[in-house]
Design brief:
By secondary structure, the chain is mainly alpha-helical. The protein contains 35 helices and 10 strands. A hairpin with a 7-residue loop joins strand 3 and strand 4. The longest helix is centred in the middle third of the chain and has 37 residues.
């Protein structure tokens, strides 16, 4: 009986083994290591050079199979891998970078971690097995850690079935809800404090006390408006007898109702969407009507436009207009367009883009489609989708098919600048002045071209006479059908100056009429239709009369390796399948309605990404960082949320509030978490327990942004023009930078010149002209981002040029002089003047010792200033350019008239005030250079 049971057990065991080829006792640790770690590592780090292209294997060292690996390539022979002995294997010494001249991977930035090198070591020591694909798949299914995630499917079964760490998929999970009442009934701001408090208690850290009223009002003003409070605001807030909660809530409401709120928070959004007033690249054409999108964003925040509506308008504003017209039963082309919605859709054109006479239309079209696919992914969904253009995403559950299906949504999106009406309240105050100077430049350029044409005509006439031909002009010869040899050469008697000036003049002759569109009510927008033939884009793009019936209907397909000319599997419009409900969501395959459907999906309360993304951005701008540290990347490689329950609770509250951004401000700013002091009573313990400043035990100070710094200096000096909206302003810029030659394709761009009057140029920085090819050096020095890529969070560097700029630049010194002059005009004594300086700059009165030190410095500097002589600052009315002419290779010169400087009203200059005022300006300059001015605490 015992023998029978043994036989049965043996047979049962063998049967079980035969039914599952990857049982524990049959799979070695080395096989598992190869299947789960080593082979993916070789693919990621090595195969690009050693096997991806069988025709170009570096050093003949091929890692696509065990046999090829063991051959050792040109350099290693059979010792490349010695099974069972990693220390004697060249492969291991290469990846540990101990093999002279053969450190692999060769780039330092891509070297393996110690753990990855140990995978290679242990695999070799285990015999260097190389299971076949079927066995690898079995091992992966059985032993790989993590969970699979359903998508539309990758380019390979291996990718489709791959597993993810559950924590990496946090953004796709449903929003956390307080089902077990862990908040103990806390709601609103107290819920924030409760969820923040959990980690502080776990760390054994107590929160900092609340900030005092002076610190709090300055913090609130800068966070919500980007401007410092007036001394009267501070006095009223600090001295109010009302309770802290009541007076502070009233302050928040006041700031949220301010028109400057939309300027500050609109600027944050413009960073993300890459707003600029020019196209970038070689020509960097100005986009004369892009400013209306900027003002739309400011209005949207001021009006507290529901965020779901904000999404829909930017992605599909033009389609909403078209649908409304259709519903009204009227032909689309006979109705007045909805200007606001058309302007909002300008979001889709914010990225850099150009099409020239040398461009291939299909290529530039694809560049736009790739750009907008990735942009929408980052801005609204916190997913960088460009990674999937050539292959399935290496880390996130986003297959290549999803990338092109998502892109298909935009396949019928076309560019246009559409006539609209001016909106009620749009600021047009600067248009007349700006247009006048623009027309002066245009006329001067026409005169240069006319002069060159007259010279050309004279030379042509002399040539005809010398040749004995009966013509006086080329036109006459052409009308007479003269043979080619009867026409004078194009370079007849032309000098290098003639060639160069004509080239510049022709380029400007193209630019200037287009730029006049800045002063017309035109929407920089899109429409849905078939793709029209495209020529060089050097003027306004008109919407065709029959966009649905004429042109080419684009059909989207997966592009193998991202190659436009290697189309593979066709796809239809769809959303991201990894997001719950994405596989079931249907996007119409019609010409119109694709973007509307996508916008509805993004703006749906059921979308697990959208609300999280926006509340994370709001939190970021209040605390200097998001709860999830990469606001544009909620994928595997992004930083995980430090407080996931809080992020989800805020997202849920955002939706419950009707997607109100202002509601979120109130919630966050009324919390104890936001109102804490930036000084902790036990800073040493806090640094030990929270080195990454992640538990919010104290408020983290931040430096003012570039725009805030400039605007604050203008505000405290009394020079700031607070008008809202309008065409781009041109602030003063360092002359050397302003007049540097800015090249555009085959020519120079016109020089940067400021607005002629302080009232216009001293407006808020959000309205400053943003040329991709000509950055303001002061803004750039203080980390204003470029507009080429979406900026999820600004850098905050501390570098010596910042200190030198604040101390020595004309911009700062001009503000300090105006500051001193304005203070002296309203002060009855020197002590009163110093008090006013402190109140404006810091929002507080000076301490007794500060007053004494400031007065002493003022007196010393007055002695110094009395010995100095200042001359008026000179401004150029023309600039001479020198370059090599491309036709002749010889140098030429070109003189550009700077008409603005004929009428330029300069800011107050040192020679216009006395030594005492200049000395007080030195005191003011010290204030503007202080941390207390440049930081929010």
């Amino acid at each position: 009986m015992y023998k029978l049971l043994t036989v049965v057990a043996i047979v049962t065991s063998l049967t079980a083994c035969s039914s599952a080829s990857a049982q524990d006792e049959q799979v070695t640790e080395a096989e598992k290591l190869f299947a789960l770690k080593v082979r993916p590592l070789l693919r990621e780090k090595c195969l690009a050079c050693h096997g991806a292209d069988s025709e170009k294997v570096e050093s003949r060292f091929d890692l696509t199979s065990r046999e090829k690996l063991m051959s050792g390539g040109e350099s290693f022979g059979g010792d490349v891998v010695v099974p069972g002995n990693a220390d004697e294997s060249y492969l291991y010494s290469m990846v540990t970078r101990t093999e002279p001249d053969f450190a692999m991977p060769p780039k330092e930035a891509e070297q393996l971690t110690e753990e990855q090198a140990w995978w290679i070591r242990d695999w070799i020591n285990g015999g260097a097995p190389w299971p076949n694909d079927k066995r690898i798949a079995e091992i992966y299914d059985r032993y790989a850690e993590g969970v699979t995630w359903k998508t539309s499917g990758g380019l390979s079964d291996e990718w489709t079935k791959r597993k993810y760490e559950p924590e990496d998929l946090w953004a796709y999970q449903p929003l956390w809800k307080d089902a077990d009442d862990s908040l103990n009934g806390d709601i609103g701001s107290t819920a924030i404090d409760a969820l923040i408090g959990d980690q502080m208690r776990d760390a054994g850290v107590k929160p900092a006390p609340g900030a005092d009223r002076q610190a709090l009002i300055r913090r609130a003003f800068f966070d919500l408006t980007g401007l410092p409070p007036e001394p009267s605001d501070v006095a009223a807030f600090v001295s109010s007898s009302r309770s802290d909660d009541v007076v502070y809530a009233a302050l928040i409401d006041k700031l949220l109702d301010s028109p400057h709120y939309g300027e500050q928070w609109g600027r944050h959004w413009l960073d993300v969407v890459r707003y600029a007033d020019s196209s970038g690249f070689a020509n960097d054409w100005e986009r004369p009507n892009a400013w209306r999108y900027r003002d739309y964003v400011v209005r949207a925040f001021n009006d507290d436009k529901p965020y779901d509506q904000f999404i829909r308008e930017q992605i599909a504003g033009d389609e909403i207009v078209a649908m409304r017209k259709t519903e009204n039963g009227q032909p689309q082309d006979t109705l007045t367009t909805d200007a606001e919605l058309l302007i909002a859709a300008g979001f889709l054109r914010m990225g850099p883009w150009e099409h020239t006479g040398m461009s291939v239309a299909k290529v530039t079209r694809q560049l736009f489609l790739d750009d907008i696919t990735d942009s929408v992914g980052q801005v609204f969904l916190a997913h960088a989708l460009q990674c999937c253009r050539c292959h399935d995403h290496k880390f996130d559950p986003i297959p290549t098919e999803d990338y092109y299906s998502f892109q298909a949504v935009f396949a019928t999106t076309q560019f246009a600048e559409v006539d609209t009406a001016w909106l009620v309240g749009e600021n047009r105050s600067g248009i007349a002045e700006d247009r006048r100077y623009h027309q002066m430049r245009q006329k001067a350029n026409s005169n240069v071209l006319s002069m060159l044409s007259a010279k050309q005509a004279t030379n042509d006439q002399k040539w005809f006479e010398k040749q004995g031909l009966p013509y006086k002009t080329r036109a006459e010869a052409k009308q007479a059908d003269a043979p080619q040899e009867h026409f004078p050469p194009n370079n007849l008697l032309k000098t290098p100056d003639d060639f160069g000036r004509e080239r510049i003049g022709r380029k400007w002759q193209t630019r200037f009429p287009w730029e006049l569109d800045r002063y017309k009510p035109i929407a920089f927008t899109v429409y849905s239709g078939k793709t029209q033939p495209m020529r060089s884009i050097a003027a306004r793009i008109q919407k065709p009369p029959n966009p649905i019936t004429k042109g080419r209907l684009e059909n989207t397909a997966i592009l193998t390796g991202g190659d436009l000319f290697a189309a593979a599997k066709p796809v239809t419009p769809a959303v991201l399948s990894a997001v719950p409900g994405g596989l079931e969501f249907k996007v119409p395959d019609t010409i119109e309605g694709r973007r509307s459907a996508l916008a509805d999906w993004i703006a749906s309360p059921q979308n697990t990404l959208s609300a999280r993304v926006m509340v994370n951005r709001i939190w970021q701008h209040h605390f200097g960082r998001g709860l999830a540290g990469n606001p544009n990347n909620f994928g595997t490689t992004g930083k995980k949320p430090t407080h996931p329950k809080l992020l989800d609770w805020l997202a849920g509250e955002f939706i419950r509030s009707g997607w109100s951004v202002k509601h979120m401000h109130r919630l966050i700013m009324m919390s104890d978490t936001y109102r804490r002091s930036s000084s902790h009573p036990d800073a040493k313990l806090l640094a030990e327990k929270d080195p990454g400043n992640q538990i919010y035990a104290a408020f983290l100070p931040r430096r003012l942004s570039a725009e805030e710094l400039r605007d604050a200096m203008l505000a405290v000096s009394g020079e700031l023009n607070r008008a809202v909206g309008g065409i781009p302003i041109r602030p003063d810029m360092n002359l050397e930078a302003a007049l540097q030659p800015r090249m555009i394709m085959g020519s120079f761009a016109p020089s940067y010149v400021p607005n002629p009057t302080p009232e216009n140029r001293n407006r808020r920085s959000v309205y400053a002209l943003k040329l991709r090819g000509h950055r303001d050096p002061m803004m750039e020095t203080f980390n204003q981002p470029g507009s080429e890529k979406s900026c999820e969070i600004r850098d905050s560097s501390t570098i010596s040029p910042q200190a030198l700029t604040l101390l020595n630049s004309d911009e700062t010194n001009d503000r300090a002089l105006a500051f001193a002059t304005d203070v002296l005009e309203e002060s009855e004594s020197d002590e009163a003047a110093i008090t006013a300086v402190f109140q404006r700059a810091f929002g507080r009165r000076p301490a007794a010792e500060e007053t004494i030190a400031s007065l002493q410095h003022w007196q010393k500097m007055e002695i110094v200033q009395s010995r100095l002589t200042f001359n008026p600052r000179e401004y150029p009315t023309e600039v001479v350019r020198r370059a090599s002419e491309e036709n002749t290779g010889e140098p030429f010169t070109f003189t550009e008239r700077l008409f603005v400087y004929d009428d330029y009203v300069h800011d107050l200059q040192p020679h216009e005030v006395d030594a005492k005022t200049r000395a007080l300006a030195d005191v003011c300059l010290a204030m503007l250079n202080s941390n207390e001015f440049a930081f929010v605490y």
